[in-house]
Design a protein that fits this description.
Elements (H helix, E strand, L loop, with lengths): L11 H5 L20 H4 L9 H4 L15 H17 L3 H12 L4 H17 L3 H18 L2 H17 L3 H11 L9 H17 L3 H18 L5 H15 L2 H18 L2 H18 L2 H18 L5 H15 L6 H9 L8 H14 L3 H13 L5 H15 L13 H16 L7 H17 L3 H13 L19 H11 L4 H8 L3 H15 L4 H6 L5
Helix pairs in contact: 4-5, 4-6, 5-6, 6-7, 6-8, 7-8, 8-9, 8-10, 9-10, 10-11, 10-12, 11-12, 12-13, 12-14, 13-14, 14-15, 14-16, 15-16, 16-17, 18-19, 18-20, 19-20, 20-21, 21-22, 22-23, 24-26, 25-26
């Protein structure tokens, strides 16, 4: 029998049936910028003020005697953010609800907006959606532009989690301050992170990466780094999607450090899972096993949080690679209970989950997952590719043309392997010629992104099927294709220097170094520092 389908309310825009009129953006003349959810970075590393440094475990009443109303609200939201960042979201919600009771409209907009952000961090999507709608109404009534933008950012996250990246892009853009980022740097960072996530979900990798880099740059320059963890994680996911695995590892490692320093549970889990998945692509289960165990250990320490589903998935992949059949109960439960199913890693998880369920004979449950994926496929080639792969797994046939139109090379390589397995299945119409072409295409893609373990698995499948495939020949561009600045950057990168160290040595910002490296990789036909070092004579 099919697992119960969890209903989803859709994005805040679609559910409410109306779009709140966007009021004038920018503080009134002489009005100081107010603290907001962006300052604490509920979805990033929380910032703590002096009162919190005196004791994050203290009761709110012990932190201030009777401050003026504005200061009391600011203190309450800051304390709630710190509590949520330390895994005490329930306590943070009670604090905000108590302060919001009987508050003025203006103060209620700030408190309920902060409450929506805390609930979002805690995975309470439905409650966060209700609070966000109330906060939008209160901020609009109070003319509080800053908190209206903050709440639009929360709604952008919710829209992406509901599988509606287009609404997420619109809401995230409405959350950004007009004019110069430095006028409201915290809100700029807070809005650019969900904007990048929504763009990534729409397979717009370069705009997504630019949004994440802008958030990092503004945060580094102004100190408004509350969402730095998710900005670096988003940049790593953008690089992973585009097949830039070296850069994805560097970004995930940075995100992991920031998450652990800031107590960001979700960022910690997602970063661990991404590092383990890349290790499986590149080095196989023996190298990935310690990372998988570290991810499991962090999940045991932190308890359930957004990102747990990614850890469960990568642990199941590692178990599968080790030989024993996958226990489908935990991955399926993580999928069914995820409060924001379509956030960050769903398209990585879904094809594997369907495959495991079909192998276990749980066809009704596999069908329910396929229906979930198809419900949000829309017109995006990448999403349609995932849906086509999942549907083909159910039918046991080679996937159709849509499965190969994703702009994500790792996804397309998996689709080619799936096609080859179906074309070699003796229970169907075997087509060895088509299978050979599918495996050759998969091998070319895996090799192009440096997924060595994936390439070895493809060779192994070909050997077992008595098919002869050849390793693709990589061509490297000439050194004179590089500008003088690019040659300098390439030489230092080939020596193993980090972007920060290269920037310091050449008097460039890290953003400029990153841009140069992307141009270098494209011109030389390499995918990262490892391949660049192999071709050092060219640099």
């Amino acid at each position: 029998m099919a697992a119960p389908r969890r209903t989803r309310g859709g994005s805040a825009i679609r559910r409410s049936g109306h779009r709140p009129a966007a009021p004038r953006i920018g503080p009134r003349a002489g009005q100081p910028r107010r603290p907001s959810a962006a300052d604490g970075g509920h979805l990033g590393a929380p910032r703590t003020g002096g009162a919190l440094r005196r004791g994050a475990g203290a009761r709110p009443a012990e932190l201030a005697d009777d401050p003026p109303a504005d200061a009391a609200v600011a203190l309450t939201t800051s304390l709630a953010q710190a509590l949520a960042g330390r895994g005490r979201a329930t306590e943070a919600c009670r604090l905000l609800e108590a302060r919001a009771a009987g508050a003025t409209v203006e103060h209620r907009a700030r408190l309920i907006g902060s409450l929506a952000s805390v609930r979002l961090t805690n995975g309470e999507a439905d409650a966060a959606r209700r609070d966000a709608e109330e906060a939008v109404a209160a901020a609009t009534a109070a003319g509080d532009d800053h908190w209206l933008r903050s709440t639009f950012a929360v709604q952008a996250w919710l829209a992406v989690g509901d599988g509606d990246p287009d609404s997420g892009i619109e809401l995230a853009n409405r959350s950004l301050p007009s004019g110069v980022d430095d006028k409201d740097p915290s809100q700029s960072v807070f809005g650019r992170v969900p904007l990048g996530v929504a763009l990534l979900e729409a397979d717009r990798f370069e705009p997504a990466a630019a949004s994440f880099r802008r958030a990092i740059e503004v945060g580094d320059r102004t100190g408004a780094s509350g969402n730095a963890t998710l900005a670096h994680l988003g940049l790593a996911l953008s690089d992973y999607a585009a097949g830039r695995l070296d850069e994805a590892v560097a970004g995930a490692e940075t995100a992991l450090v920031l998450a652990q320093v800031g107590g960001n549970r979700s960022g910690d889990l997602y970063a661990h899972a991404l590092l383990a998945r890349i290790a499986l692509h590149r080095h196989g289960v023996a190298t990935a096993a310690p990372l998988v165990e570290a991810a499991r250990a962090r999940l045991d320490e932190t308890g359930p949080a957004l990102g747990a589903e990614a850890v469960v998935w990568v642990a199941a992949l590692a178990n599968e690679a080790s030989g024993p059949p996958v226990d489908t109960d935990m991955p399926l439960l993580a999928w069914q209970l995820h409060p924001m199913r379509y956030l960050l890693t769903w398209r990585l998880i879904a094809p594997d989950l369907v495959r495991w369920l079909v192998a276990a004979g749980r066809l009704d449950e596999a069908g329910a997952v396929v229906a979930d994926v198809e419900a949000v496929a829309g017109t995006s080639p990448g999403r349609r590719s995932v849906a086509a792969q999942c549907r083909a797994t159910i039918t046991g046939r080679a996937p159709g043309p849509r499965a190969f139109r994703s702009p994500r090379p790792i996804e397309v390589a998996a689709a080619h392997v799936m096609a080859a397995r179906a074309q070699l299945d003796p229970r169907a119409d075997t087509d060895r010629g088509a299978a050979l072409a599918s495996l050759q295409a998969a091998l070319a893609l895996a090799s192009s992104v440096g997924a060595v373990a994936d390439a070895e698995a493809i060779f192994d499948l070909a050997r077992r099927s008595k098919l002869r495939i050849e390793a693709p020949v990589r061509t490297v561009g000439p050194p004179d294709a590089l500008t003088a600045a690019e040659r300098s950057v390439a030489a230092l990168a080939a020596e193993g220097l980090t972007n920060r160290a290269i920037g310091a040595g050449l008097a460039m910002s890290r953003h400029t170094v990153d841009t140069h490296l992307r141009h270098i990789y494209r011109k030389l036909g390499v995918k990262g520092r490892v391949e660049l070092a192999r071709h050092r004579p060219h640099t």
